[in-house]
Amino acid sequence: MELPKFLLADNTDYPDAIFIVHTEYPRFIINLENDEVEWMEEFSKEDEADLMDETENLIEAATAFYDREVSRYDA
Predict the structure, then answer these.
(1) Organism's domain of life (predicted)?
(2) Helix (H) or strand (E) holding 47
(3) Residue 28 and residue 12: Cα distance in Å, rounded?
(4) pTM of the model
(5) Which of 3, 5, 13, 52 is least surrounded by Cβ atoms within 10 Å, i.e. has the fewest?
């Protein structure tokens, strides 16, 4: 099965949360309500340095995905 790069997720236990799941490496879930990120990968020290550079870009892409999805829903 081929998954999209981002998925929008919801959970009634967290009614104010807006979860975006990034399905490609490095996999993570971000809660756009508070920008909290949960990584689903284990990273080496070398990976962490590269990850810091890429994290901002990934969060911006996740936010853009959410904005796009919401705009399509309202249309």
Answers:
(1) Bacteria
(2) helix 45-74
(3) 20
(4) 0.86
(5) 13
